[in-house]
Write a structure and sequence with these properties.
single chain, about 250 residues, alpha/beta, serine acetyltransferase, domain 1, UDP N-Acetylglucosamine Acyltransferase, domain 1, 2 domains, five-stranded parallel sheet, 6 helices, about 15% strand, globular
Length: about 250
């Protein structure tokens, strides 16, 4: 019976936390720089991934760019959420920002063709925030997630700049089949789109046009032109009375 090193999940959890802290805190970066490198190499060795030192150097060189992207995301949070009172609050207390941070780190490793580890990082933050962003998704600048719980963003999703997504949104595939592994299965969201709670958008050919608003609880399997407003129609019926009591 083959043995799997499932204890590595704990190592990746601690590594991801320290990496996140180091990205925003200079003291943490200095304190944990040796730990991060040694642990990264240990993880890659455990996963039987070669050229760990070269991968680490390439990854480390991308971290300033990741920080700049996340600073733009944080500003988007502050500008869009009336319940936020400072940028510091975004960095310290917003699960959506935390999830985006780990996504951008894991996506950087994904683009360096590192297997498994990016998924382990994304599953760590998924367990904390309830937000499931595949590290292979492509997400542009100034991305804003409000509340966030229950959001699912699939591997081949493309999200452009200044997009806002609320809790429960799914960007998924319209069918599940192993032979579609290398095919674009998830939708494209153009710039300046707002997608409200529990909307479901399915299919790799689906494009939500720029500047559109997708209302709550809608189900979309066809492309939407730019500047659209898509809503779910609620029907209200007043129940008749019987003997003075509503049925």
């Amino acid at each position: 019976m083959k043995s799997y090193n499932v204890c590595l999940k704990d190592t990746v959890k601690t590594f991801t936390k320290c990496l996140f802290y180091s990205l925003f805190d200079c003291e943490q970066e200095e304190a944990h720089s040796d730990y991060l490198e040694k642990t990264f190499l240990k993880i890659l060795s455990s996963l039987e991934i070669e050229n760990g030192e070269a991968i680490w150097e390439s990854f480390k060189a991308e971290l300033p760019k990741v920080r700049l992207q996340l600073d733009l995301d944080a500003v988007a949070f502050e500008n869009n959420d009336p319940a936020s009172y400072s940028l510091e609050e975004i960095y310290l207390a917003y699960p959506g920002f935390h999830a985006i941070s780990i996504y951008r780190l894991s996506n950087t490793l994904y683009k360096l063709n590192v297997p498994i580890l990016p998924r382990m990082m994304s599953e760590y933050i998924h367990g904390i925030t309830g937000i499931d962003i595949h590290p292979g998704a492509t997400i542009g600048e100034s991305f804003y997630i409000d509340h966030g719980t229950g959001i699912v963003i699939g591997e081949t999703s493309i999200i452009k700049d200044n997009v806002k997504i609320y809790q429960g949104v799914t960007l998924g595939g319209i069918q599940v089949s192993k032979d579609l592994a290398k095919v674009k299965r998830h939708p494209t969201i153009e710039s300046n789109v707002c997608i409200y709670a529990n909307a479901t958008i399915l299919g790799g050919d689906i494009v939500i046009g720029a500047n559109s608003i997708i209302g709550a609880n809608v189900w979309i399997t066809h492309s939407v032109p730019e500047n659209s407003l898509v809503t779910y129609k609620t029907e209200i019926k007043i129940r008749p009375k019987k003997n003075g009591i509503r049925e």
